[in-house]
From TrEMBL:
Residues 112-220 form the Tectonic-1-3 N-terminal domain. Belongs to the tectonic family. This is Tectonic-2. Pfam families: DUF1619_N, TCTN_DUF1619. It comes from Phalacrocorax carbo (Great cormorant). The keyword ATP-binding does not apply. The keyword Repeat does not apply.
């Protein structure tokens, strides 16, 4: 150790353990330490031992009590030499005179060199450091004492300089105020010296150096960027002029209003900001040890105009725990720790134009015990104030990325339909897989595993697989827009279905067992959409067509060691692809553009048709009046040059 204090740790139960410290001088003849016993105490010489007990770990602190200052004339209780303490210590941990642990410490501590004398309060006028040197030793900052790592300090004795002789200050600190510059002939500091350097170098003494020192002019500013905050406006009046779609919702403390949401990696982020007019429904897994409460529900929200509104919170108790407790580990039945936690939170934002009018929150509480895994659910829905039901009309009627695709079954009594993909759980079997809706703009691929026996009938297998895939699409039409009305057939596009196979075609391959061709194992859902407009700068996206097709595979039974009484697996998948097309077909190229490509500005670097582009109204780099004046001036100069270059013009003179 090189300081007056050192810490160590004793691992294990410290009850009944006696800690002691012993000074262990080295035998001069043998050079070995004397044997230690458990008869020591917690104080030895100038050393103290302090033990802070813990549950399974105890902190052991060894500290020096003597003064470490260098001796001044006629002073006592100080260090006479720079190397003040050189001792060997032993720390013992004993129980009933039996040594449990042993720690050896070699202490070499040097005296403090900081100045403790009287300092004059007379002000010293320091000249401008840029134009004249401050002193011959710039690192000599303390009067009457040695400054560490300052080799030019006259107060440093040779013994003290040996402590830091290898790490002295360089540059300005240390007296080097005139370093040789690169242009000096005697300087070879450049890594690659050019051949012409001896002809153009400078012959000068170091007293005439252009070096003025390393100094910084200007004020220092400490960056202050708190998380999830934006700078406040200093102008009087209301802070906000309203929210736009996608803007983060702010609180009264000028922070983001956050609710747990899923990240791109699939994990839940507890402090994710809520965006205006963007609904979401997320589920997060947690257990009692990692459970954390979110923002308190008494936080007031900025309405968008500078006013603040309070959340209307309703608390309810969960009755069906099975919807939230997804797994229960084996835990002891006695003394199980349980806690009342939040199982779900449902937020309903009532909005109008660019402002939030009201916030309704429903919180479901329940008891979570150790060993149980909780599936928390957080939903956010924005409801227009002009709407009379939950199926409200957004300010932007088009689809937004991440929102469920609207479906309808026109052949059923209940027109409301669904367009889903699988969400496997457990072993990934189709029998236990659940459904999740198709989200607009997000290409996805999901699947499950179907158990098939070796004696499976191929026709029944095709029908079973087709039924599993068709269960994902309980609809005949897809809504063009997010606010498509069920009563208006023009708001919907019919799903184009391509049959997986022709049932009348003979697909038999003999009496082969364990092989079935033309199994429709892949469902392909393609949705074609386009931008048909914009609302407040947000593109209005509309679905134009939907096609469903199947891809077939040849299924073959996979045998292990034996093929008797075994089951094979057939993976079936469903893919969703969103294809964006122009809202209107592009204008066809003319025969002139096809034949004379040299005049096509899109395919050539030189565009002659745009020679006079700065004189047209499409050019916005300068005011049109200036462009016209410059163009006329240029035309006048060209005309004048043409006239003066004509031979008959010279005859006039």
């Amino acid at each position: 150790m090189s300081g007056p204090r050192v810490n160590s740790f004793f691992l294990g139960n410290s009850s009944g353990v006696n800690f002691s410290i012993i000074l262990s001088p080295i035998d001069e003849e043998t050079g070995r330490l004397q044997l230690a016993n458990c008869s020591g105490s917690k104080r030895a010489g100038d050393w103290n031992l302090n033990v802070t007990p813990g549950m399974n770990t105890s902190k052991v602190t060894i500290s020096l009590t003597r003064n470490l200052e260098l001796c001044l004339p006629n002073a006592t209780d100080c260090c006479t030499t720079p190397l003040c303490v050189v001792e060997t210590l032993q720390v013992l941990a004993c129980r009933d005179s039996v040594m449990l642990a042993h720690l050896l410490i070699q202490a070499e501590i040097y005296a403090n060199s900081s100045f403790t004398g009287n300092v004059s309060e007379n002000a010293t006028i320091i000249p401008n450091q840029v134009f004249q040197p401050l002193g011959s030793c710039h690192c000599d900052l303390t009067a009457g004492a040695c400054d560490v790592r300052c080799c030019c300090d006259p107060e440093c004795t040779p013994d003290l300089k040996q402590l830091f002789n290898e790490s002295c200050f360089t540059g300005v600190f240390g007296g080097d105020v005139n370093p040789p510059f690169d242009q000096l002939c005697s300087s070879r500091s450049m890594e690659y010296t050019p051949d012409w350097f001896p002809f153009l170098c400078v012959q000068s003494s170091l007293n005439n150096t252009p070096f003025l020192g390393y100094f910084y002019h200007g004020s220092l500013s400490i960056p202050r960027v708190p998380p999830f905050k934006i700078p406040l406006q200093t102008s009087p009046g209301k802070l906000f002029t309203g929210y736009c779609q996608g803007n983060p919702i702010m609180t009264e403390e000028n922070e983001y209003f956050t609710i747990p949401q899923q990240s791109m990696a699939g994990q839940c982020v507890g402090n994710a900001p809520v965006a205006y007019l963007q609904n979401f429904d997320v589920k997060c897994l947690t257990h009692l040890a990692s459970y954390k409460e979110g923002l308190p529900h008494d936080v007031r929200i900025n309405s968008g105009t500078g006013d603040f509104i309070q959340q209307n919170v309703i608390y309810r108790t969960v009755t069906d725990m099975g919807k939230f407790i997804t797994e229960s580990e084996s835990v002891p039945t006695a003394e199980v720790l349980c806690q009342n936690v939040t199982f779900a939170e449902h937020y309903m934002f009532i909005w109008k134009d660019k402002n939030i009018e009201q916030i309704n929150v429903t919180v479901f509480l329940g008891s979570l015990c150790e060993g149980e895994i909780l599936t928390q659910r957080f939903t956010v829905n924005f409801l227009s104030l002009k709407s009379t039901n939950v199926a409200e009309l957004f300010g932007n009627p088009g689809y937004q990325v991440g929102k469920p695709v609207k479906a309808a079954n026109m052949n059923a009594s209940n027109i409301s339909g669904s367009l889903n993909i699988w969400q496997p759980a457990g072993r990934g079997l189709c029998t236990s897989a659940t459904y999740t809706p198709v989200l607009f703009g997000l290409d996805s691929l999901s699947g499950c595993i179907l158990e098939v026996g070796i004696n499976e009938d191929c026709s029944l297998l095709r029908g079973n697989v087709t039924a599993k895939l068709n269960s994902l699409i309980q609809a005949t039409h897809i809504g063009k827009r997010d606010n498509s009305s069920y009563s208006d057939l023009n708001d919907w596009v019919e799903i184009i279905r391509l049959d997986p196979f022709n049932s009348e075609t003979n697909v038999s391959r003999g009496n082969l067992t364990g092989i079935c061709p033309d199994i429709p194992a892949n469902l392909n859902i393609r949705l074609i959409f386009a931008d048909v407009g914009a609302v407040q700068g947000i593109p209005q996206q509309e679905i134009l067509a939907v096609q469903i097709s199947y891809s077939t595979v040849i299924w073959q039974f996979q045998c292990g060691l034996t093929c008797e009484n075994s089951v094979s697996f057939l993976p079936i998948t469903a893919s969703v692809q969103f294809i964006k097309v122009p809202a209107q077909p592009p204008i066809p190229m003319t025969s002139f553009q096809i034949n004379y490509t040299e005049f096509d500005c899109n395919r050539n670097d030189v565009c002659w048709p745009q020679l006079f582009y700065p004189l047209t109204r499409f050019y916005t780099g300068e005011p049109y009046s200036q462009c016209l004046a410059k163009g006329l001036s240029l035309a006048f100069v060209v005309l004048l040059a043409a006239i003066m270059s004509n031979p008959w013009f010279s005859k006039l003179w």
